[in-house]
Please model this.
Amino acid sequence: MTTKNLLARSMLAVAVASVIAGAASSALADEPIQPIRPVQQVNLAQVELGKKLYFDPRLSKSGFISCNSCHNLSMGGTDNLKTSIGDRWQQGPINAPTVLNSSMNVAQFWDGRAADLKAQAGGPIANPGEMASTHTLAVDVLTSIPAYVTEFKQVFGTDTITIDEVTQAIAEFEKTLVTPNSRFDQWLLGNKAALTANELDGYKLFKNSGCIACHNGPAVGGSSFQKMGVVEPYKTDNPAEGLSAVSGKDADRFMFKVPTLRNVEMTYPYFHDGEAQTLTEAVDIMGRLQLGKKFSAEDNAKIVAFLKTLTGDQPAFQMPILPASTDKTPPPTPFG
Model:
């Protein structure tokens, strides 16, 4: 084949690729859900330090509970319990939302009381019902460990560890916990064989029924607060009030942050009170209470099939080896 022919074929291939990319982009623009992109910009040194802190149970009073206890990265970024287990086996007040793709949330916690991941990271450490430590004690523990002191200085350029650097590092690690490349994302990006006819029917039902009004964008949720129980009141024994606990406005009662549906097959049980154990149950309740629709068993199954296509590539990395405590490290007090 001549150079001229090779050049022509190469130009044709580029042109075809451009047309395909353009068509995919055009189709994507018409969809209310966008693919999750791999993380773009992070401080890698902070990420590595934050990874250690995320898994380090010494940030808790008991020396047993870490961030990963309630947001287990082997279990969809949550603990699969109705409400989490806190210090001295205390029952948590609310269902633990997934940490996966949480950087896409409009705010953190069900009631939005933390503006971002950094603000969220400090809450559980000092919460007496969760890790039950204090920021001062957590910093004292880290300061007593020379390897941590050295790493904090390398990462932040400071001789003094504060809770500000601790939460910043944890947040930077959590930014990396995104789950791209779900089968649904593959379909959005042009691979029409990525979904079965049944799953595609489920997506059409999801859109046409109105679910998409709240569950949209890359995270398929997380971008707004909505009232739990629009058409019918939601009956629960859980005392959580939602956004009104932060805003003080009665109009915000039972307004909760819309959860992401990414990896939703892994993040059971569902809702802020964890009352829906299965996706089938959750779809039925959401249909009736939020949309005024009673899905048939067949339609419910199709929507569930679609929701399972939202499971993406899970975070995968070598587990961090935590530096050893020293004689000066405040000992844990797990039983008193």
Notes: Strands lie at 225-227, 255-257. The first strand starts at residue 225 and ends at 227. The chain has twelve helices and two strands. The chain has two domains: 44-175, 183-310.
